[in-house]
């Protein structure tokens, strides 16, 4: 074993049986999203009284859990999602990993889990990308998607926070998130299901929030839609977010609006980045609630000209139409709008190193 760097607490155990190069190259021609996994993973253990220890990059493989592991019974689990990009000069880079580290710890706090030192979170991602850099897909929009997560690992059946945890990072070579081929996505309004409620875990990136979205999402896919949009739990009136993405609305006066961070939606890092870029352009940006009836009326009157969803996985995705129980409306021309395309391009140019990074968002992995 050898240390990855003099300052890193991670040891490196190379995979003795990596995917053969020819097979790896074949997989990278069309990696899809979240299914073409790399050779290695990170694992760090936590024990009450000892803290975080035994940090290593090792061969990706199954993990052993006791049937009474707390995560299997009480869903103490959180995760993050971020990407490693290839810059225009060939170097690899992470985009805003500090923000992911902070959000990870905010989720941990909400779920009564131990916080992970931010430098350990960042180094775990950096170390895994370095170990598996050969898995970067040389395709348009290609990246390495990183999934850091933490699970409760104590063996017991009492209802209390676990005393033992596993922190793991896995990676997947990634192409485009949506495979429909459409230039914009079609949304179905969730009529019966809600994603999160005030006082709940909506702002935490935990599996339970996504599990709560799966029934509505499956129903939407079965009916030919790309995604489901959720309304607030209290009044079933205000637009919140998609199953895994934040929403923006663009109006005919050039202003933008997005639902506020009131504890029921995820504070997206892509969302925050786009807010910053829009304000730099001098655009008026409002973080205010937006009712589904108003969305429909504004689209039909022409006041609303664009809607787009955003998130790490899909980046920026135009919304073509919205369908509810007794209505359906098209947004603008039903395709990508100018503001959507411009903001997406600005963000992608920074991520890929073809535009100046005045905010220090890009972390090079030289």
UniProtKB/TrEMBL annotation:
Which key words tag this protein in UniProt? Amino-acid biosynthesis, Aminotransferase, Branched-chain amino acid biosynthesis, Pyridoxal phosphate, Transferase
Output the SUPFAM superfamilies linked to this UniProt entry: D-aminoacid aminotransferase-like PLP-dependent enzymes
**Keyword Hydrolase part of the UniProt annotation:** no
Q: Which GO terms describe its molecular function?
A: branched-chain-amino-acid transaminase activity
Q: Which GO terms describe its biological process?
A: isoleucine biosynthetic process; L-leucine biosynthetic process; L-valine biosynthetic process
Which CDD domains does the entry link to?
Answer: BCAT_beta_family
Which residues are annotated as modified residue N6-(pyridoxal phosphate)lysine in the UniProt record?
205
User: What reaction does this catalyse?
Assistant: L-isoleucine + 2-oxoglutarate = (S)-3-methyl-2-oxopentanoate + L-glutamate; L-valine + 2-oxoglutarate = 3-methyl-2-oxobutanoate + L-glutamate; L-leucine + 2-oxoglutarate = 4-methyl-2-oxopentanoate + L-glutamate
What EC number(s) are associated with this protein in UniProt? 2.6.1.42
Pathway(s): Amino-acid biosynthesis; L-leucine biosynthesis; L-leucine from 3-methyl-2-oxobutanoate: step 4/4; Amino-acid biosynthesis; L-valine biosynthesis; L-valine from pyruvate: step 4/4; Amino-acid biosynthesis; L-isoleucine biosynthesis; L-isoleucine from 2-oxobutanoate: step 4/4
Cofactor requirement? pyridoxal 5'-phosphate
EC class, as a word, reads transferase
Record Pfam families: Aminotran_4
The role this protein plays is: Acts on leucine, isoleucine and valine.
NCBIfam families found in the cross-reference section: ilvE_II, PRK13357.1
Protein family according to the UniProt entry = Belongs to the class-IV pyridoxal-phosphate-dependent aminotransferase family.
User: Would you tell me the protein name for this molecule?
Assistant: Branched-chain-amino-acid aminotransferase
Q: Which organism is it from?
A: Sphingomonas lacunae
